[in-house]
Amino acid sequence: MEVYLVRHTETVCEKGICYGQSDVGIIEPCNAVFESIVEQLPQDAILYSSPLQRCVILAEYIKENTQISSVIEDSRLMEMNFGDWELKSWDAIPQEVLNPWMEDFVNIRVPNGESFVDLNDRVLDFWKNRLTSGSEKPVIIVAHAGVIRSFLCKINDLSLKDAFQNKVNFGDTIKIEIL
User: Fold this and answer.
1) What CATH number should be reported for the domain holding residue 70?
2) What's the rounded mean pLDDT across residues 31-35?
3) How many other CB atoms are found less than 10 A from the CB of residue 29?
4) How many CB atoms lie within 10 A of CB 80?
5) How many domains does the chain divide into?
6) pLDDT tens for residues 121-131?
7) In whole angstroms, what is the distance from residue 15 CA to residue 137 CA?
8) What is the mean pLDDT of residues 150-162?
9) In the 3-class helix/strand/coil scheme, how is the chain assigned residue by residue?
10) Domain hosting residue 143, numbered range
11) I need a labelling partner for 99 at 20 to 30 A (CA). Which of 25, 61, 113, 138 fits?
């Protein structure tokens, strides 16, 4: 099965702001970037999206400019929940709280949020329930860097602690094959 992992385009958040599950917008105009993304995708596919607007806006554009009939929103595709850190500057997070997480982001939960294992568990649940159904159509997933890194760790048999070896830029489209 062909799966296309598409990261949303750049957000309106300033650099250095933590915005995991905060529903922030994207920088406009974005049609030129969206057009270049659509050119990399199949015209007929099953289209899934994180329910956050930065993904839904792109997913709707993909639907409107292909033969795809619907966007299926799935909360398991949301970015990591950064809890108390949402919309704060990384520099404003006290070092005594930030440092332990930075040293083991895989297992340590953000206060009132998630760890990378928590995100990965959601992504693997999506994988098990949505990507093993034997569909003959390609699948497009519009999501976030953390979610895409989780998929890439699974497909490449990479440890979660090495997830950042997978570079995922705004607007990237990554094609994977699931056997």
Assistant:
1) 3.40.50.1240
2) 96
3) 7
4) 24
5) 1
6) 999 999 999 98
7) 37
8) 97
9) CEEEEEECCCECCCCCECCCCCCCCECCCCHHHHHHHHCCCCCCCEEEECCCHHHHHHHHHHHHCCCCCCEEECHHHCCCCCHHHCCCEHHHCCHHHHHHHHHCCCCCCCCCCCCHHHHHHHHHHHHHHHCCCCCCCCEEEEECHHHHHHHHHHHHCCCHHHHHHCCCCCCCEEEEECC
10) 2-177
11) 25
Asked which of 45-54, 69-78, 127-136 is least confident by mean pLDDT, the reply is: 127-136
Please answer whether residues 84 and 90 qualify as being in contact, where contact means their C-beta atoms are separated by less than 8 angstroms.
no
Residue length of the chain: 179
- Burial (CB count <10 Å: 0-12, 13-18, 19+), residue 151: buried
Tell me the two tokens of residue 65.
Answer: 């400019």
CB 27 within 8 A of CB 35: no
Q: Are 5 and 22 in contact (CB under 8 A)?
A: no
Q: Are 163 and 149 in contact (CB under 8 A)?
A: yes
Residue 33 has pLDDT above 90, yes or no: yes
Distance of alpha carbon 74 from alpha carbon 80, whole angstroms? 14
